[in-house]
Amino acid sequence: MALIVEDGNIIPDANSFISLVEARELALNYGIDLPVDDNEAEVKARQGYIWLSNTYEQSLKGVRVSKIQTGCFPRAEVYNVNDFDLDDDEIPNDIKLAQLYAMGCLNAGVDMNVIQSPNQLKSFNVDGVYSETYQDSQVMKALSSMPQVYNFLKPYTKGNGSINLYKEDYGSLSPHYCRGYN
Fold it and tell me: What predicted TM-score, i.e. pTM, was given to this entire model?
């Protein structure tokens, strides 16, 4: 099923801010790995589109333009983004790049819902001999964050880029745009 690209005109059933052709061109320019198979790449695009809206919309400036739009853009009443106001029918290039980087992270294996917590010190003993015991790592459900995605969205957020993410939200991510995955 081909991507249905939101271009700012409230496209019914839109599921991406970026076409597959544009995603592949930008991925090549920015060194982002996408699936070779078009169907798999489109799935990553749809996942990234939904993830952006579900994760960041509550922190974005402005409001949706229409109650029937499927994504977090276009937005009305978005003022002073890098000293410019956003048009109500605009899908900024930053939003496309945020989706592209999310696609790359997802392709690299980032789980959008799980963060691996580091081992925590369970006990420590210094009775003449150094000794440490650690608890087993725990996996907990939480918001997975992709730092480069956040950087592209920052100018569009309320409160000078505060998206209310915490250190725990960053988890293990991928290549140069998602720490931890190779």
Answer: 0.75
